[in-house]
Design a protein that fits this description.
Layout (H helix, E strand, L loop, with lengths): L1 H19 L3 E2 L3 E4 L5 E9 L7 E9 L12 E6 L5 E8 L9 E11 L7 E7 L22 E5 L12 E3 L11 E3 L6 E4 L2 E11 L2 E5 L1 E3 L5 E2 L2 E8 L6 E9 L2 H4 L6 E6 L7 E8 L8 E8 L10 E8 L2 E6 L2 E7 H4 L10 E9 L15 E11 L1
Parallel strand pairs: 2-8, 11-14
Antiparallel strand pairs: 1-3, 3-6, 4-5, 4-7, 7-8, 9-26, 10-15, 12-13, 13-14, 13-26, 15-25, 16-25, 17-22, 17-26, 18-19, 18-25, 19-20, 20-21, 22-23, 23-24
Amino acid sequence: MRNLLLWSTALTLMSCRTAEVPVLVGEDLRIAEGDADREVVFPVHLDAPAPRAASIKVELVGQTSTSGEDFVPMSSTLSWSKGEQDAEVRFTVKGDTDYEDDETLWVAFSQPSEVLLPNPFYTVTLENDDPYSGNDSGYVTPTSYPGYALVWNEEFDGTSLNSAHWNYETGGHGWGNNELQKYRNDPSNIRVENGRMIITARKEQFGGSEYTSARLTTQGKKEFQFGRIDILAKLPKGQGIWPALWMLGSNISTVGWPACGETDIMELIGHEPHKVHGTTHWGPQGSSTSTYRTGTYTLQQGDFSDAYHVFSIIWVQDNIKFYVDDQLYHTVSVSHVSPATYRHNAPFFFIANVAVGGNWPGSPDATTVFPQSMYVDYIRVFQ
């Protein structure tokens, strides 16, 4: 009994001691990047006056931003004397006049002394405030071809998607590939800006998932059978990132997949950012797996996140040809599918999405930088 009383007294003293230790509190911060270097003040405070001298280490950690390029490296120690409560972290952001995505860094805390640290990281977002220059425009294709008429084009003018053309598909459940993201209709994941549709995958908790992204379709609104299709896009990269520009047969709601057919105009697996894949899938009604034929295009220099490229198909009866920047790299015809039923002589609709994880790319790892965005400049259909 005496030992139990001593142990109980010790626990009570430890509990009181812990209760006296204040908690470090801060908030995520969003600021305009600016055109010139400037000092940023990041305020923090203890949730109660320090009962004794306290300290904690603080440093900056680049996420999508780069130390030395977007901010000046900093490592320091914050200290509180007894009775003090407020403190400031001061650091320098390096401004520029280049258009770029919003970038993030962490104000990271460690080695607390007489301070409790429930959240060791706070995010500072450097918001782009520079106009789009078009310097990454890359390859482009014409708005007309001999023998073809332009029957539909989505140039992403304005500030939002055209609801007469596009549907938002939302939710999780792996999407048949054990993907990790939750798709949602949120401006942080899908927006229209500077004449481009931007789909962004983010690492953030939402609906039981660690990642969010967006998936758009034209199902029931814009569906096509045959023609030349050009899509100008700049792609994301990184382990576990899986952007796709593709099509499904319009009869999917009645025959299911893979009997509806699938045409992947472009897929990229993020750990191979210099390669894209063009694929067709087919199979019998009621099957849970498909037969497919795929081709791969490899850039000789750089990767598909550096600049815009045009991903095209020329789709005629019994044949589909796949192109990158007008370079033919893959063909699928009815002879490749025989004796199975060829599923691609029927109307199809468009899908654009950025998946995270899944059977093909695998999961993100410590090398994966978030957020990652796919930029779609135009989609044009000629017949």
